[in-house]
Amino acid sequence: MARPHLMIFLVSVLLGHSCIVALVASPSNFTDLSALLAFEARITVDPDNILADNWTTKSSFCNWIGVFCSRHRQRVTSMNLSHMGIHGTIEPRLSNLSFLVSLDLRNNSFHGYLPNSLGQLRRLRQLYMGENELEGMIPPSLSQCLELQVIALELNKFSRYVPRELSILPKLRILLLSNNSLIGPIPPSLGNLSMLENLVLSNNNLGGSIPEELGSLHNLQQLTLVNNQLEGSLPSTIFNISKLQLIHLSMNSLSGSLPTDIGYRLPNLEGLYLGGNQLSGHIPSSLCRCGKLSHLVLSVNNFIGSVPREIGSLSNLEEVYITRNSLSGTIPPSLGNISKLKVMDFSENDLVGNIPEEVGRLLNLQTLFLGKNHLSGTIPKAILNISALQRIALSFNNLSGCVPMSTGSGLPNLEELYLGENQLRGSIPHSVSNVSMLSIVDLHSNYFDGPVPTSLGNLPHLQYLQLEDNQLTNQPDTHELSFITSLTNCRLLKLLVIGNNPLKGNLPDSIGNLSTSLEVFSGAGNQITGSIPKGIGNLSNLFSLYLGTNDIAGAIPSSIRGLEKLQRLYVGDNKIHGSIPDDLCSLTQLGELSLSQNKLSGPIPNCIGNLSQLKILHLGSNLFTSLIPLTLWSLTDLSFLNLSHNSLHGHLPGKVENLDVFEGMDLSWNQLSGDIPSMVGDLQRLRYLNLSRNSLQGPLPQSFGNLISMEFLDLSFNNLSGVPLGPPTMPILIMARPHLMSFRIRAGGALVHYVACMLSGHIPSSLCRCGKLSHLVLSANNFIGSVPREIGSLSNLEEVYITRNSLSGTIPPSLGNISKLKVMDFSENDLVGTFLKRLLKLLVIGNNPLKGNLPDSIGNLSTSLEVFAGAGNQITGSIPKGIGNLSNLFSLYLGTNDIAGAIPSSIRGLEKLQRLYVGDNKIHGSIPDDLCSLTQLGELSLSQNKLSGSIPNCIGNLSQLKILHLGSNLFTSLIPLTLWSLTDLSFLNLSHNSLRGHLPGKVENLDVFEGMDLSWNQLSGDIPSMVGDLQRLRYLNLSRNSLQGPLPQSFGNLISMEFLDLSFNNLSELSLRQWVDASLSHEVMEVLDPNLVRGDEDSSTVRKQCFSSIMELAMDCSMEWPDKRTDMKDVVVRLKRIKLEFVANVGVIFPVSHPLPAVYTSELVLSTHQAQVLVQFSSSDSIYRRISAPVFLFLPSQLALCGVADRPGFGSSIVNSTKSTRRRELSFRSSLASSLPSPVIFSSSSSSRSYQFSLKRALAKAKFRAHRCLPISRNPSAAPVVLTVSPGATPIVDPSGVHPPLRGS
């Protein structure tokens, strides 16, 4: 039995001996062992004792954990000690592992430098050192490891430059250097790494531009340079790398635009991340040809234009982020085709239109962010049925309508719902409570009404609920806000904001049962009544409590001491009474406390000094009567104190220490007495001090000279003394306060917030040393002398009032240096001089006889100048070139002056100009192309000048132009076609020029066009039918041209027309006669008003036949040539025959009585609301009999009106039905009075003096001197036109209905 044991022992000895012999016999193995042991010696932390227990000489190093050797030579070929939590430094003698192929020490805590000696590892292929704390420079010696394929040094602290020497590694495939502190440019030589597949340099401080040479990396699949300081444009060469799958260049300062053909060059692109740069231009539509694209991130750039409508072809797209750009247009409906889409973030753009219904087809959509756009319409119901949705953000749009009551039923996974800042109405759907995963509900700033649903309490995961700024109410018939009780079930609730709703109820005591996680409760402006409930003290984690501007009464409950973490308490503007409880003083975390505008009384408690972190304290407008507690002055963090409007008495403390951050104090309207203590002058950060309306006395402390930050000081209505007034001493006072911003003076010498005190003397020039002075008010005193010329040194001055004094001299030119100046009131003085040589930020000086030139120094003003109005000032000279420096000017008004010269090319510098009015001057020359670069221009008036040449084609670049006045100049060109592309144009005046050519045959998208005056030109050709498509057109003047051809039938569509002048052209007749002739006899109802033939079927047929016969007779009477017309004797016969046939078939009896008196036409109303013509007659004879008979109204040479006079009162009923009181009326008194004689009337009698003849269409054209053609719209909704006609000659009236022949008709 002993022999087997003996054998085992002998074998063990022999094996051990052979190993020792082998080790001794192989120096190379000994080298590897020494290197490993040296490495182990540098390990300082080995949390699992792996190396301590395993790396021992008791076993071969090839068996050590993390060490791998070659099979035959037993040499170390690989080390992998990743993810072991080891601390230490890298041993340089690792370079002795000459057979090492892979070194992986990732995710440890190695620190120090990476040894240069690693460059001796000639066989090294993989170097993984990521996620450590290595620092210093990346060793350039690594370039000697020519077999290297992977260098992974990410997530360390390497600094300095990316070694350009690495570019000689011929086999390098992966270079990971992200998340270090590398600086400098990216070496262009990296473009030599022809085998490189992944280049990751993200999260460093690399600068410069992306080298064009990287485009030579034809095998590159991943380029990640995110979060550096790269700038410049994107090199086009990188878009030639067809193998690229990922481009991640976000969070840099790259500029320029994307190549228009990007989609054709990158067929394998899967991810494009370009967010957080300064890229501009349009999103190329070719990008939608990258069929493999799954992630598209273009957020936070300056892209413009619309979202490519072809985006729906990206069938593999999963996430798209284009938030925070300047994209416009609508959301492409084709997005609904991307079935894999999970995230869609189009927020913070200028998108308009509705949310496409097609978005509801995205069944995999999890995130939908469309907030902060200009979207309108309703929320599509289909979106609210996408069961995968987790987050919906539609806030800050113009969405309207109601949220569907079924909302929530189809959103089982919804976690966040943002609908705030819209125009949504209706009640909050109760079904929202079915969305059990909801954690955030934001509905603020809408028009939601009705009760707050108590079912919201069924949301167990609810954390944030924002309902402020709506019209929500409490549950009916309840005094307490019951929904708050229901929310006690939401145990995770952190934020509850319900402010500014008319809730009108009490806070329930159950508020104390709300989640202990609640951090913010805001219920300001809710008309809350009752008292602060005691239960509120249970909210132990509450940070902020806002209950201001309510009707809360009662006392502050002692339970408030339970709000141990409260930092902000605002309950001002209520009716709280009683005293401040000592319990409030136990809230030691309180930083802001406002109890102002209540009815609190008694003393301010001494324990207020316990609130050591208090920064803001508002106790103003109460009934406090005590002394100010001394402990209050021990609050070293206090920055603002308001105790105003109380009845506090006593003295201010003589000494206060450690108020280093004190910035503002308002103790006004109290009963404080004694001197102002000198300690106030030690508050060097004090910016606001109001001690007015007290009983303070004594001199102003000299220490006030130390108040270097003072901006506002009011000591008025006290009994201060001891500061003599006058020029010798006032400068001393002023110079002691170089940062004073609000300076007002009252008698007695104190610096106060007061005017009208009869102060005299000079304004001291030393006042101009108050460098922070922003408001200077010296109005209504007796100051004499001049305005200090040094006033221009007050660089922070915003408002200056020195009106109503006796100042003389000139206005100092140095005022032009004050770039922040907004208000300058120097009125009611004795100032002299001409036009200011400097201007202000806002200067309105119109309609004054200034009589001077604009100085070129106008361009030296601050670029903050926004408005300059100098119209009607008799300004001469030319527009100065320097005006182009005013890059922020919005409005420039220089009309009605005597300005001559040309428009300077420097005007292109007014990049933000929106209104330019320089009409009624003497400006000559042409319109410079530079004017066309003002792309923000919305209103342009150059009329009544001497401009000549052509209207430039580039006028079409002014895409935001709404009003254009170029009338009364000397333009001789064609009207540029580009002008008709201005889709926002509403009024165009090119009248009184010598423009020629034709009007365009087709114009699209002029949807807002309301007025056009092209009169007094040389335009020719037909009036295009497109004019009739301008349905908003109210004013059209084409008179005094050479237009010809017929009036377009489309003019019947001009439903808004109020003024039409086509006179003095060569227009051919498109008469009513032609239209009636075409309508007879098969379309006679197109001529007649249906009211004329109303009745039973038989009667209507007879009436229709009667009027058809009358119209046929009228056609014969209105032939163009007199010899072709029917003789009036024959007309009489035919009329009698028509009447007899009508009477025989209908049975109408015509009573004949008194003859009709003479009548005069006083007003002709052409109404198109009900396609009728209203003719009003007046007469001195009131004897009328009722006669129902056919009626004719003739104008010279032309049939104008036909109809039937109906029963009395019929006219007034028509007027009421058409709401005539709202009709626009336009009078042509002067043009008609002299040219249109009174018509001849065939009429019936009535007891009324006003008749209205109801017609469908009766008057197509009235010939008179000034207005040749007057069309009648066929649109029943058109606006009426009123023609007022002076009485003419006495018409001929025959009660029998027989009219004698008209001469010349």
Itemize the secondary structure elements and their pairings:
Layout: H1 2-25, H2 27-41, E1 43-45, H3 50-54, E2 67-69, E3 76-80, E4 87-89, E5 102-104, E6 109-113, E7 126-128, E8 133-137, E9 150-152, E10 157-160, E11 174-176, E12 181-185, E13 198-200, E14 205-207, E15 222-224, E16 231-233, E17 246-248, E18 253-255, H4 262-265, E19 271-273, E20 280-282, E21 295-297, E22 302-304, E23 319-321, E24 343-345, E25 352-353, E26 367-369, E27 374-375, E28 391-393, E29 400-402, E30 416-418, E31 423-426, E32 440-442, E33 447-451, E34 464-466, E35 471-473, H5 482-486, E36 495-497, E37 520-522, E38 544-546, E39 568-570, E40 577-578, E41 592-594, E42 599-602, E43 616-618, E44 623-624, E45 640-642, E46 649-651, E47 664-666, E48 671-675, E49 688-690, E50 695-698, E51 712-714, E52 719-720, H6 730-735, E53 742-745, E54 751-752, E55 760-762, E56 775-777, E57 782-784, E58 799-801, E59 823-825, E60 842-844, E61 867-869, E62 891-893, E63 915-917, E64 924-925, E65 939-941, E66 946-949, E67 963-965, E68 970-971, E69 987-989, E70 996-997, E71 1011-1013, E72 1018-1022, E73 1035-1037, E74 1042-1045, ...
Keywords for this structure?
1305 residues; mainly beta; 28-stranded mixed β-sheet; 10-stranded parallel β-sheet; disordered C terminus
Explain this structure:
The protein has 1305 residues and is mainly beta. The protein has eleven helices and 82 strands. The protein has a 28-stranded mixed sheet, with no helix packed on it. A ten-stranded parallel sheet has the order 60-61-62-63-65-67-69-71-73-75, with no helix packed on it. It has a seven-stranded mixed sheet with strand order 1-4-6-8-10-12-14. The longest helix has 24 residues, at 2-25. The radius of gyration is 45 Å and the shape is globular. Residues 1-25, 722-759, 834-839 and 1148-1305 have low confidence and may be disordered.
